[in-house]
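Researcher: I'd like a structural prediction for the single chain below. Treat it as a standalone chain; there are no partners to consider.
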Amino acid sequence: MKSSSILSYVHTLLRATISPGDVVIDATAGNGHDTLFLATCVGSSGFVYAFDIQSAALHATAAITENAGADIRLRLAGHQHMAEHVDAEHHGGIRAVVFNLGYLPSGDKGITTTADTTTTAVQQAIDLLAPNGVLAIVCYLHDQGRVEYDALLSVLAALPQHQATVLECRFRNQQGNPPVAFVVTKQPHTKATS
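Model: Treating it as a single chain, here is the predicted structure.
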C-alpha cells in the first residue's frame, strides 16, 4: 500500500467490505480510477453505478473500464440525483459508495463538487446503503473543498450513532493541505434502542 495516499487507505477499507456480486456506487466518476477499482471488487456478477456531470469524465471512465467485466452503469447526472438513477431493486442494498471530491484531474478547475450538492448526495447515499454498507468520502482542502469539508463535518457529526458510525482520517504530518477522508458505516439497526 502506498502509505502517502489517503486513497490507498480508503481502497483498503473498501476492499475488505465489498464482495463479488455486490452493488456499489462511484458518486464522482472523474477519470474512472475509482470506478475501475470498484468493478474489480464486485467482479462480473456485480454492478457499479458511476456518476459525473461532465461527459468528458464519463468518456474517460468508459475507456478505462472497457474490459473491467462488471456491469457498469454510467450516469451523466450530479451525485445529488443518485437516488433517482439507481434501480429501485438496489435501494437499501448498496454495499459501498465512494466520493472523490473536487475537480476533474486535468479538467476545468472551476468545475468542482459543491457543499450543497455533496451534502444532499451523502444523505441519499446513506439511505441507499445496505446494513453495514460503507460510504467513503475523500475531501481535498482547496478553497471550495474547505467549504465542502466544513459542511460534511457538520452533517456527518450530527448523524445519530444508532444510524451510522463516522470515522475521520487525515495525515497529520504532511506538508500543505493533505486530503481528509470520512468513512461512514451504516449500522444494521436504524432505530434507537430503549
